[in-house]
Here is the input.
Amino acid sequence: MPAEIPTSRLVAFLRALRDTGNATLAAEWAGVSRDWAYKRRRQDPWFDALYREMKAVAARTLREAASRDARAKARQMSEWRHAE
Here is the structure.
């Protein structure tokens, strides 16, 4: 098992992973190494499941934000065309 870290850092890593979808940034923000996270995933099925879920949440959030942005841009362009 990789080095033990405080629960607060583990939680911080998972939250940052959820918010960014990026393991490198999440590790940096949580004060752990990216290698620690990858080793932990290989050796701890519970952590691996949480890691995968946080990545899925991040991807879903990013897709939803991109979709909202695209719809807003399409509305804006339509309004510009009608204003001419």
